[in-house]
Amino acid sequence: MFRESSKVEDSNKLLNSAISVRLVIFLALVIIYNIVVSFLEFTFKEIILSNILFVSIILSSRMANFRELLATPFKVQLKMHYPMSLTILDSLLFLILVAIMPIVKGGIFYFVLSYVFSTLPGFIIQFVFLEKKFDFKPKLIFYRAAWLIKESYPLAGFVLLAIVYQQFDVVLLTSYKDEYSAGIYSVATRLTMPLNIIPGVVVTTVFPYLVKNQHDRIKTDAISSLVFKVLFLISFAIAILFSFRSETIVTLLFGQKFRSASLPSAMIFWSLVFMFFNYFTLDLLTAHSRQIINLIYSLLLVLSNTLMNVLLIPEYSYAGVGFAKVIAGFVGFAFLFWALNKSGFNLLFIKTKFFLWTIIVSSVVYLLSMLPLIIYLLLSVIIIFFSLKLFRYFENEEWDLIFRLINREKWSSYFRK
């Protein structure tokens, strides 16, 4: 839907159709669920609560469903501050309702109703924004519905398999080892999980541009090269800064008893170097109507991750899960690298100076890691920042584009060479 909305000026008809299709699927799932639970040992209270929670699929921005679909026009026009402000409103209302829970002596029903219906004002206001900004009026239509389903099913499979990839390793770790090992690994994932928002923010910014210029391979390759460089810079810098002082950072954040989480944390950080590349590559291929590759990629990711976990967990426990993440990420990276070349994309950013920069920065940061933590982090960030100019990590045109995006065009003159 994001791709098609980026192609045409008036995409309201298609958006209404996508909402209608999702609504039908939602209703079908609710009906099937209620039929199934009627044969299970669910209490009446549990059935009522679960049905109330189903409503959050429509209302809540916490669910990547209807509210995400309604945010599509804002993404296309780079006006995500509107839906994001409503997400903050949702959280604020929920926080207020939870805060007064002891005063009103609310129980489980109060909590569930608060969780679900604290999102109702934001849901309504989002429709108001859509009408004011894009003249959008909701209608129940099924315009090109079959085509939408055909185009979307690979992405649906990808999302389901991505959830398996993120969660199944904890199940295997608990099964092969114990809950203590799973707890140590959970600390590691808690450190890295917030970083997953980074590629999403970057991709949302450039995706409409990629779609509109999909037939101009020179422009597509140029913007893709810049995005790959930015994502690698962020993921590599975070991974290397953390790795050399992982024990100190984990102990500082979580205490001495979770010190063992340092190794799996470092491994997951390094897996993000591959996963950031993979994330953008999948969206780049989707922009060119090759979303079937998403499904194949997710299958490879789940299979390789599961296989490596089965092989490594018995011997290496939670550290093995971290290594499995890196290996699976690399397998996905290798496949997508091949897919990009097969599809005719030019990977402009892969040059000798790129690898030279990586080696020298790694060496310098390693030497700095012997200093106290705060000094190490500050000096490392400064050196990484200035090394970008010294090694010409970004080309002059890329500096211009970066500072244009943040409305600081004058700054680019300091980095041009």
Explained architecture:
With 417 residues, the chain is mostly helical. The protein has 2 domains: 2-143, no CATH class; 154-350, no CATH class. Helix content is 78%, strand content 0%. The chain contains 19 helices and no strands. Helix 11 (179-192) crosses helix 16 (292-342), helix 12 packs parallel to helix 15 (262-287) and helix 14 (246-254) packs across helix 15 (262-287). It is globular and about 65 Å long.
Indicate the multimeric state: single chain
Q: Cα-atom Rg, whole angstroms? A: 24 Å
Q: What's the story with the biggest beta sheet? A: none
Global morphology: globular
In which range does the helix fraction lie? over 70%
Q: What string gives the helices and strands in order?
A: HHHHHHHHHHHHHHHHHHH
Name the average pLDDT.
83
- Specify the number of helices: 19
- State the end-to-end CA separation: 41 Å
How much of the polypeptide forms β-strand, as a percent range?
Answer: under 5%
- Structural class based on helices, strands and sheet pairing: mainly alpha
Give the uncertain stretches in residue-range form.
none
Question: What is the number of strand segments?
Answer: 0
Query: What's the number of structural domains?
Result: 2
